[in-house]
Amino acid sequence: METPEQILKRLELKVVRKLDGFLFGDYTGVFYGPSLDLAEVREYTPGDEIRRIDWNVTARTNKIHVRQYREEKELTAWLVLDLSPSMAFGTRRLLKRQLAAEFAAAAAYIITRHGDKVGAMFFPDPVLIPPRAGKIQALHMLHAIERMPAAHGRTRTNLAEAILNVDRTVRRRSLFFLISDFLSPDGWDIALRRLGQRHDVIAVRVTDPIEGELPDVGMLTFEDPETGEQVRLDTSDARVRAAYRTQARTHEERMQAAFRRSATDVLTLSTHQPLVEPLLRFLAYRKRRRTWNSPGR
C-alpha cells in the first residue's frame, strides 16, 4: 500500500504537472468566480453585466448604476470531504474514499503551489484542518484522511446538515470543493445553493461503475453501508438487471436535477478512471464558460 508521501509524488508526476501545463497560469480565472468584495458603485457603461445593476442606487439617482467589485488578492480554498460509510466502497481501481483523497491531495497541491491557502473539513465525524499554504499542507491532509477510521452508522448521512455546518463555519468568501458520492436523502440542493450564494462552490461527485449497471455474476448479497439493510439478488436474471438499471437511471436524473437547482458546477470522478482526463474536461468547460460570460459577449 502506498504511503501518503508516495501518493503525493505520484499525483505530482501524473496529475499536477499535466494540469499546470493546461492552466498556463490561468489558475484563478478557471477556479474562482467574480469577487464578492464590493469596492464601489458607479454609473453603467456599455458592456457591464446586467446582474450587477444596483437597483436601489439606480432608483435614487434616476441613472443606472452597477456594483464594482474588488478582486481579492489572497484566495482561500476548502476541501469538504465526505468520509461516510458509502464512500468505503469500490469495485475497480480504488475505493471511492481513496479516489476522493487523491483528488483532495491533487487540488491542495495545485492551490498551495500557486501561493494560496487551503483547508479541509471532514464529515460525518467533524474534523477541521485550518487553511495554510505550502506543499506540506497537502501531505498533512492525506495523513489526516488516512488516520480517520471508516465511519459506521445505521442512519443515512445528512449531507444537507453537513453543508449548512460548512456555511456557518466559514464566513469569508472562499472556493469550496464538496467531495462526496451525494448518496443522501433529498434536500441537500437547497443547502448547496445557499452556500453558493456567498462562495464559489464546485461539487466533486465520486462514483463507481456498479452504481449504474449491475454485473451478471449470479447470486449476490448487497448491504447498505449506511443502514446495514441487506438484500440478496440474482444478477444473472436479466429482469433484475433491467430493474436495477432503471432505478439507477431515475436516481441519476434526480441527482442531476438537484445540481441544476443548486446552480453548481459538477466534476464527476469514477473509481475505474484516473484523475487526469475528467479534470482536464472540467477545466476546459470552466474556461469556455468564463470566456462566454466575459464582458462584451
Please characterize this protein's 3D structure.
With 297 residues, this protein is α/β, with parallel strands linked by helices. It has helices spanning 4-23, 27-31, 55-61, 96-113, 135-147, 159-169, 188-198, 238-262, 276-292; strands at residues 38-43, 65-69, 76-82, 117-123, 127-132, 175-180, 200-207, 219-223, 230-234, 265-270. It has a 6-stranded mixed β-sheet, with helices on both faces. The protein has a two-stranded antiparallel ribbon with strand order 1-2.
Give the SSE layout:
Elements lengths: L3 H20 L3 H5 L6 E6 L11 H7 L3 E5 L6 E7 L13 H18 L3 E7 L3 E6 L2 H13 L11 H11 L5 E6 L7 H11 L1 E8 L11 E5 L6 E5 L3 H25 L2 E6 L5 H17 L5
Parallel strand pairs: 3-4, 3-6, 6-7, 7-10
Antiparallel strand pairs: 1-2, 4-5, 8-9
Helix pairs in contact: 1-4, 1-9, 4-5, 6-7, 7-8
Radius of gyration from CA coordinates: 21 Å
Q: Termini distance? A: 50 Å
Strand order of the largest sheet: 5-4-3-6-7-10
Low-pLDDT parts are none
Helix/strand order, N-terminal first: HHEHEEHEEHHEHEEEHEH
Main beta sheet strand tally, sense and closure: 6 strands, mixed
Structural class assignment:
alpha/beta
What is the CATH T-level topology of the largest domain?
A: Rossmann fold
- Report the CATH superfamily of the largest domain: von Willebrand factor, type A domain
Write down the overall mean pLDDT.
86
- How many helices in DSSP terms? 9
Helix content: 40-55%
